[in-house]
Amino acid sequence: MQLAIDTSTDTASLALVQDSEVLAELTWRCEQNHTIELLPRLADLLSRTKLRLQSISCIMVAKGPGSFNGLRVGISTAKGLAFSLGIPMVGISTLEVEAYQHAETNLPICPVFNAGRGEIATAIYQMKRNKWRQITGKHITTVETLCSQTTTKTIFCGEFVASIAGQLRKQLKQRAIIPSSTARLRRASFLAELGQQRLEAGSYDNPATLHPLYLRRPPITKRKHQ
Questions:
Q1: Range of 173's domain?
Q2: Taking the chain (226 residues) in consecutive chunks of 10 residues, what is each chunk's mean pLDDT?
Q3: What are phi and psi of 44, to 5 degrees?
Q4: Are 198 and 204 in contact (CB under 8 A)?
Q5: Is residue 218 classed as helix, strand or coil in its secondary structure?
Q6: In whole angstroms, how large is the CA radius of gyration of the chain?
Q7: Are 53 and 83 contained in the same domain?
Q8: Is 132 helix (H, G, I), strand (E, B) or coil?
Q9: Are 67 and 12 in contact (CB under 8 A)?
């Protein structure tokens, strides 16, 4: 049985998956309460399904970009479980998880996260010839630049899309496809599916060296001259 953990943003999600079947999934709005809510929610999920922590054979975790606090909580929890249970773990980009639930459209998919300072974190993915591909790498940019580079009909997804939907529609017209808020909800079961593909390819991460993907360094206060 695999456990998928996603605490990248104010929306958190957990999923228990076995043999490609979702046994249980929980997605909730946690704001910045990842530290106090994650483990109790996991315990509740295991209790409701009458499953034991020791039954978990692999941990999948969303590694960012996203909230500094959220990513630290999710990844440190995943590492702790992997070490204590002696099981492998797989880290997956949160942008990829966000995009993957729209893969069957076969259109370019552009997940968008708020990167602060008037910028966004994004990438482009697409299912081509039944193979999931990253078309444009993960990077920081602006909405204006993203629109100028979008030349074909594209799906825009992610929590932050609601804040820029008007701008996207104004500049891109019919090229901007924006799913409903329910269809944009990021779910840990898609993280589990991507993680399972990695495992089947024989690829997993070392818990000691897996780090959050921030794309931007956290601000550091400079020392004042005496």
A1: 102-177
A2: 97 96 96 95 96 96 95 97 97 98 97 94 96 97 98 96 96 97 93 96 93 75 46
A3: -65, -40
A4: yes
A5: coil
A6: 18
A7: yes
A8: strand
A9: no
**Whether the Cβ atoms of residue 61 and residue 55 lie closer than 8 Å to each other:** no
Strands 154-157 and 109-116: parallel
Total domains in the fold of the chain: 2
pTM: 0.93
- Distance, in Å, from the CA atom of 47 to the CA atom of 31, rounded to the nearest integer, reads 24
Give yes or no: residues 123 and 86 share one domain.
no
Q: Is the four-CA dihedral 173, 177, 180, 185 of positive or negative sign? A: negative
What lies within 8 Å, CB to CB, of 62 at 6+ separation is 5, 6, 7, 8, 71, 74, 91, 92, 93, 94, 97, 188, 191
Sheet holding 154-157, edge to edge: 131-141, 119-128, 109-116, 154-157, 176-177
Give the CATH number, domain containing residue 136.
Answer: 3.30.420.40
- Integer angstrom CA distances of residue 123 from 2, 65, 119, 167, 168: 27, 11, 13, 18, 16
Residue 30 CA from chain centroid, whole number: 15
